[in-house]
Design brief:
This protein is of the alpha+beta class. The chain contains five helices and seven strands; from the N terminus they run E-E-H-E-E-H-H-H-E-E-E-H. Strand 1 and strand 2 form a beta hairpin. The longest helix has 21 residues. The radius of gyration is 29 Å and the shape is elongated.
Length: 187
């Protein structure tokens, strides 16, 4: 590492004459600054993904789970080693399977899939409300290889929204009730 923050790979080899005698050293420097920075960035991103409270997963194009972070363990109740033996279809309620697989097929075909509400199954069979984002990952040649997902449990938010709506309805009902005893009190 240089004093100004650049990184170089130094290679030193003997300089050989045509009659194979060593008469010096040839030293080359290859600038690897971008590679070092990219590797550091990759490590930071990997730590963020692994420790996220959201479920961040990857699946092959057949839906087989390839990676599973701590957020996925927390949301769905399956440990990583269990999930890696599963398919995304194992988490989709049967009555929603066709609709959900359409989203995956659309993403695999290269079409943009906006984030959407869906439902998934917890290990104990409980139905979860999830905010899903699908991202298609491609290899160097541009071929689709992996689907990455970011999944957020929105069950609590939906419950709060429902309670808020009920509360607002009750407030409007109370505001529209006639004043009790207004006429008899002379007011």
């Amino acid at each position: 590492k240089t004093s100004d923050g650049q990184y170089f790979l130094r290679r030193s080899r003997p300089y050989r004459t045509p009659d194979n005698r060593i008469e010096g050293v040839v030293t080359t420097f290859v600038d690897i600054t971008e590679r070092v920075r990219s590797e550091a960035q990759s490590r930071r991103l990997a730590a963020m993904v692994q420790d996220s409270n959201d479920a961040i997963t990857t699946q092959d194009l057949d839906g087989n789970i390839l990676s599973w972070n701590h957020g996925a363990e927390r949301i769905y109740g399956y440990r990583e080693n269990e999930a890696l033996a599963m398919n995304v279809r194992d988490f989709i309620p049967a009555h929603r399977l066709d609709e959900e697989m359409e989203h995956f097929d659309k993403a695999i075909s290269g079409s943009k899939v906006e984030s959407y509400d869906c439902q998934r199954l917890h290990r104990d069979g409980k139905l979860l409300d999830i905010w899903m984002t699908l991202t298609l990952l491609k290899d160097e040649s541009g071929q689709a290889t992996i689907i990455a997902t970011t999944e957020r449990d929105i069950g609590e938010r939906k419950l709060i929204d429902k309670l808020r709506a009920q509360s607002e309805r009750l407030i409007r009902m109370v505001e529209n009730l006639p004043e009790i005893g207004r006429a008899s009190c002379g007011g």
